[in-house]
């Protein structure tokens, strides 16, 4: 017979376009699909077509690292258009996502001397768990996971120099705050994954020694697996390059080509009315944050991280917050596992324990599709409106 089209359980209506309110809200992953509508609008100008015989070699101009000079040029243009990083006097290298570069950076900042004790790799709570997972999993002789910075904060005298590698995530995942190193003696890896006007004010260009960026949170093309690092020190750059070389040879040339096209569209559209991805990203994220805040402000059960309006050098104005994630706190005694309480109400989040902090917190992703967000908001409205009645 004729195959019958069935909607996925979360959708109904004649063309499966209506979201069912019974469907759970999935605010778990950090998949940045909020930018999909921008790329639909820019579909023709952002398309890439590659003939079968193009770009077949391992190498570009006989260079095995195969770093596209044109892409490096566009990345420098991008940072100068956005004003979020100084690229002068920095080496640029590419990785398969920023994940690979973060691992390369830990390796590169660890001591060379086999007689040196391993470097302790640290981050400040609440932190992105992959730093710890990666460091522990790769288990290099030259470094080991050292826990949270607060454990070592008294170790700030210069005799401790070289002992510590500190991850600084700015803005932070999960809470969106702009962070600085806690130890003043550590080698620092600055993870600027979210340092774009979509998610934060840009107070001044990033000027740190080792900065890591990713296409994932800039353009939303997380699946292309493209990241880059800006590195001041030649020796650190060389060690990172060797790590990437032995891990991968080089970042896929197809990915580089796609990144080149997308970044060109972004830079050419920057500050151009209707074409500016940052205007689009900011207004989308700010709208979501405002609407969620309106709901949560009526609640005694939940609260959100507090972020205040700040001057942004990109927009040249004071802008309201627009974080990538809501860092929700469950205020009631009985909600000590906030993520479990949310799950019982049909909201999937990531609990505080994942970020090595109190289970009273949970992260809600605000960067997924509009449908995902609307579903989350509907569930939050229902949850908060229940508060007034039976407690
Ligand atoms: N750093 C942070 C803080 C992140 O949140 C993520 C992804 N969610 C990454 C790095 C990794 O991103 P990618 O490997 O896609 O560049």
From TrEMBL:
GO terms for molecular function: carbon-sulfur lyase activity; transaminase activity. Its cofactor is pyridoxal 5'-phosphate. It comes from the Eukaryota. Residues 25-383 form the Alliinase C-terminal domain. Keywords: Aminotransferase, Pyridoxal phosphate, Transferase. GO terms for biological process: amino acid metabolic process. Belongs to the alliinase family. This is Tryptophan aminotransferase-related protein 3. It comes from Acorus calamus. The gene is TAR3.
